[in-house]
Design a protein that fits this description.
By secondary structure, this protein is mainly β. It has three domains: 69 residues, no CATH class; 87 residues, no CATH class; 116 residues, no CATH class. The strands form five sheets. It has an eight-stranded mixed sheet, with no helix packed on it. The N and C termini lie far apart (129 Å).
Length: 356
């Protein structure tokens, strides 16, 4: 009797498993989970024959569940985009470079449509970055916050001070709260010659020598006040004036003058090329600064580089008519090419002019 009750109880359980398999085949699974392992056949062992029944065969195991084809797995959450950094200061449609000067609080700012810099080091005002200008010994140096800045000449013909520390370039000294703007070239008095006294120099160029023989004039190759003023043949052939404020340097005929912007000018042997000592520097190799330095009918010719945006060489050549070449002359000098005049260039120092 106990065996019979066991067999009757087991029968509906085996049938239930078999029905479940059919249901899974017809119904497509609700997710993309892998199907379970096929159901093993029923393991019900036939009950031991009792007095009523013979030993019954075990129930056949139901067909195992086949995994239904589930819908495509849901897409995972898209990672949120991190907060975008600030866009910085934009001046005239251009993104200003972030300041990287170790002088305390420094901020980018705009001067009109140009990038500038503001710092307590410069009084908190906004000063334009990268202002143009060349070192000029006739412009006085100024001391700003304990730093001595050399004098420079701005394209406007006015003196400034050259900053290479915070990157503002040739700046009007009044922007640093020091000095008073003056014209480049200074005001020099002509020396006493054999027969007369030299006139007063015109602002913006070296002093003009007196008309008497031996009158001392403005800047030439040989000295700050060369004989005969600034005439085309007033200098000593081969010598090149190479300033290094506050000292004056004259390079011999065996040397070239290296003009650096920014940087310190210096003389170097003819066979040694000029080289910059810092980043973002232009070097101009000067072997002549006027026609008196050339012989055999040659003229002093400057070659301008578009890539460097600066004159790279000033040397003697038989011709000087290329698109990017200009004849070099002394201030207020004469030009050999008809129709051209000697005038100052913002790409050269105040004591080297070119014909245009």
């Amino acid at each position: 009797m106990r065996a019979l009750r066991f067999s009757l109880f087991s029968l509906p359980f085996a049938v239930f498993v078999a029905c479940g398999g059919v249901t899974d085949i017809d119904y497509q699974g609700p997710d993309a989970s892998a199907g379970g392992s096929s159901g093993a056949g029923g393991t019900i062992i036939g009950g031991t024959g009792g007095g009523i029944t013979d030993g019954g065969s075990g129930n056949m195991g139901g067909t195992g569940n086949v995994a239904g084809t589930g819908p495509t797995g849901g897409t995972g959450n898209v990672a949120g985009t991190g907060a975008t950094g600030g866009t910085g200061v934009v001046c005239g449609g251009e993104l200003c470079p972030p300041p990287s000067v170790p002088i305390g609080q420094v901020d980018s700012c705009c001067v009109g449509d140009k990038c500038g810099i503001s710092s307590s080091f410069i009084g908190g005002q906004c000063i334009e970055l990268g202002q143009e200008g060349k070192l000029d010994p006739t412009c006085p140096p100024q001391t700003v916050q304990g730093l001595t800045l050399q004098g420079c000449c701005k394209p406007s013909g006015m003196c400034g001070v050259l900053d290479t520390f915070i990157g503002v370039g040739c700046v009007d000294p009044s922007q640093f709260g020091v000095g008073t703007p003056t014209k480049c070239g200074g005001t020099g008095t002509g020396g006493t010659g054999g027969g007369g006294t030299g006139g007063t120099a015109a602002g913006g160029s070296g002093g003009t020598g007196g008309t008497a023989a031996g009158g001392t004039g403005g800047i030439t190759d040989a000295s700050v006040g060369g004989t005969g003023g600034v005439s085309a043949d007033g200098g000593i052939p081969g010598e090149v004036y190479c300033d290094n404020s506050p000292n004056v340097i004259v390079c011999s005929a065996a040397q070239n003058c290296c003009l650096l912007n920014p940087g310190q000018e210096y003389c170097t042997p003819k066979a040694t090329p000029c080289a910059c000592t810092g980043a973002n520097c232009d070097a101009t190799t000067v072997s002549c600064d006027g026609p008196e330095d050339c012989s055999g009918g040659q003229i002093c010719c400057g070659t301008f580089s578009q890539q460097a945006n600066a004159y790279t060489t000033l040397k003697c050549q038989s011709t000087c008519g290329g698109q990017w070449e200009r004849e070099i002359c002394k201030p207020n000098g004469t030009c050999t090419t008809s129709g051209q005049t000697c005038s100052q260039s913002s790409f050269l120092t105040s004591y080297i002019w070119r014909c245009n």
